TrEMBL record:
GO terms for biological process: cell redox homeostasis; cellular response to oxidative stress; hydrogen peroxide catabolic process. The keyword Lipoprotein does not apply. It comes from Apatococcus fuscideae. One of its GO terms (molecular function) is thioredoxin peroxidase activity. This is Glutaredoxin-dependent peroxiredoxin. InterPro entries: PRX5-like, Redoxin, Thioredoxin-like_sf, Thioredoxin_domain. Transmembrane segments: none annotated. It is an enzyme of class 1 (oxidoreductase). Keywords: Antioxidant, Oxidoreductase, Peroxidase, Redox-active center. Signal peptide: none annotated.
Length: 159
């Protein structure tokens, strides 16, 4: 079951840049205000053409609205997620986090059954505002794959 407003963020490990660089999800957001969004996969069409580029383009709007941390999560290995972020111009703006073992994805209840399409489970597409270590909002696409409520313009209004 996906988080509700007021639920605490889970204490799970993600990876940034390489397998040795572990990131505590809980510590990354700490007591800060931030935005989290997740995609089914790096370098996939909707994720690469619309989702991530929208957050990169709206980076200034997100920070002006109060976001101190912006993070993107994908169920891929950290090398792939890093290369994808670099190709999209996210470096220095968005924490590109890999969830290769689905720790965060399972903890949030947003596993996307993509076995037939991609050979493995992935994450549903969602966005969230996190404030003070708790979810303020959590927006999950109805079919897990759409591009509506998880996009940057929608989340800006929730900050």
């Amino acid at each position: 079951m996906a988080p509700k407003a007021g639920d605490p963020v889970p204490d799970v490990t993600l990876y940034e840049k390489d397998p040795e660089t572990k990131v505590s999800f809980k510590q990354l957001f700490g007591n800060k205000k931030g935005v989290l969004f997740a995609v089914p996969g790096a370098f996939t069409p909707g994720c690469s053409k619309t989702h991530l580029p929208g957050y990169v383009a709206d980076y200034d709007k997100l920070t002006k609205a109060g976001a101190e941390v912006i993070a993107c999560v994908s169920v891929n290995d950290p090398f792939v997620v890093t290369a994808w972020g670099e190709s999209a111009g996210a470096t220095g703006k968005i924490h590109m986090l890999a969830d290769p073992f689905l720790e965060l994805t399972k903890a949030l209840g947003v596993v996307l059954d993509a076995e037939k399409m991609l050979g493995t489970n992935r994450s549903k597409r969602y966005s969230a505002v996190i404030e003070g270590g708790k979810f303020k909002t959590f927006n999950i696409e109805g079919d897990g794959m759409g591009l509506t409520c998880s996009l940057a313009p929608h989340i800006i209004s929730q900050l």
